[in-house]
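Exercise: predict the structure of this protein bound to adenosine monophosphate.
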Amino acid sequence: MDLRNGFDIKRYIRTIPDYPKPGILFRDITTLLANMHAYRAAVDELAWPFLHGDFEYVAGIEARGFILGGAVAHALGRGFVPIRKKGKLPARTIGQDYALEYGVDTIEIHADAIKEGDRILLIDDLIATGGTAGAAIDLIRKSGGEVLAAAFVIDLPDLGGAEKLRAKGVKVHTLVGFEGH
Ligand code: AMP
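Solution:
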């Protein structure tokens, strides 16, 4: 898909078959991040629908959501809130468990990062099943925040994550889609 400004970022995303396990097509954005035009285009495209958005913070999900979310927060002149894997944040946290294919994982946010009624733009690199972003939305809501929207560079539409987030009442913005998983 050509993006609004005519720059095709999809060709900068590298696909690694069978990583991290057989059958997975890993969509690697390091090649996009390394290209100055592609990185800027991706950040601009993530940010532009929210240029006039009414929100306080960009929240990014560890780790690739930090690289994109930090840049989006800077571009939009907002603060950045990290959502991290369990045990990484130094002050008091609240956590949210979510199901993985095998077992459970936990993400955390500082308990005082978001105040009642704060509005948040959530950023990650990719949405697949929506398990991770869904947990991040639950965490933001537990903190008293509202999720204005969630934005991702890559959508894997066949895995249904974007639909799952929309069913939770969250607007979803994605830049490129890949069929399959
Ligand atoms: P999910 O929770 O299933 O929506 O998975 C999304 C998270 O897992 C994101 O943080 C992605 O970075 C990572 N992820 C899942 N599937 C892939 C994939 N095929 N290629 C690269 N990253 C992936």
